[in-house]
Amino acid sequence: MTFSFLTLGCKLNFAESSALGKTLIARGHTRAIKGSAPDLCIVNTCSVTDAADHKDRQAIRRLRRQYPEATLIVTGCYAQLKPGEIADIPGVDYVLGMHEKFDIPAFVEHLEQQHETIHTSEIREVDTFCGARSKDDRTRCFLKVQDGCNYFCTYCTIPLARGKSRNPSIATLTDELRGAIEEGAKEIVLTGVNIGDFGRSTGERFIDLLKALDDASEAEYRMRISSCEPNLLSDEVIDFVAHSRHFAPHFHIPLQSGSNEVLKIMHRRYTRELFKERVEHILRVMPQAFIGVDCMVGVRGETEECWEDYLGFIRSLPVSQLHVFTYSERRNTRMLEMDLHVVPQKERERRSQELHRVSEEKLQAFYAAHKGERGVVLWEAKRVPATTEQPSESGWLMEGWTENYIRVCRPYDKAKINTFEEVVI
Questions:
Q1: How do residues 347-360 score in pLDDT, each as one tens digit?
Q2: What is the architecture, at CATH level 2, of domain 140-370?
Q3: Which phi and psi angles does 116 have, rounded to 5°?
Q4: Is the Cβ–Cβ distance between 328 and 382 less than 8 Å?
């Protein structure tokens, strides 16, 4: 059959969709040519917020209208959490839970034998780790090193959607890394749900994984660590990255709130003082480092006083950019059982807009601070239109990212795709 994937949400989802597509091709199926009607549409969903659920439903309905004859399979976090809700959408043929997602290649070969619409299992009982790496972008590869979460923050449903924390061995992942490099990847991003918790299945340590990956190959490549909890981002990890051969000075750390009172309500495992210590340590050993921060606004218990405390703390942090989420009530979370101040929806949106403005200020300040410095860029294949400020004879520019995640452009040159180049920013 011909197939197409529509993937929503995090980079982990994209890595898994890529791995499933590779398996389908190995079994004789083919990707549908762009613009043609596939035999099979697979939607890999996200469910981190109500807005994500809404986007999922819109995408499912749009695909059904676009390809009325295709078999439509919906999987991912939304499918695990609310399978009945998805099954009620007209035109959905099958709903596969998170564990069943990885059985899609076998599932589609026996469609005539599938009599039930919903196929889900209790994800918290799953011990199996299903590896994945994205190879859709010839420049960057997302390597899945961990899955699931044992933290159960009071606002979050991810442990219910992804299951308990689990991982493969370091030896397995070094082999995966070498495979990605052989396929042409020059940048590898380590991804997972809670990657700092690596080792729970195997008794190994996250720092040992980083060391093994840093020594895995003599090829020219670099690596980035995706989101890592501040309580798991140890001084040992930070110091290793600072002196490693291949890891970029780039960190993404979830803060969620700058109010200690709210962090306690959220059942986060750190204080803002610890978070600040981590940021300061990073910049002490890597002054050029990019630090992205996840921030949530409008959670239950975030009073006006807590918000002002939060905002002041964020403004004081020497970080590079904020990734802002607006809180939405999620079924089966403990926060809904707590007697807390409820932030009106319009106020949640106002606070979100304010943090977005703070984020833009911090990003522009970070860029300005590095203007005129040297950086190593990995050029990507994507073309962007030239501008009067940055002209190009062909009318096109190419873009890339420095090791500390500064986006730069230059006149398009096909020969430079997937190559490193030292530039003045």
A1: 999 999 999 999 99
A2: Alpha-Beta Horseshoe (3.80)
A3: -100, 140
A4: no
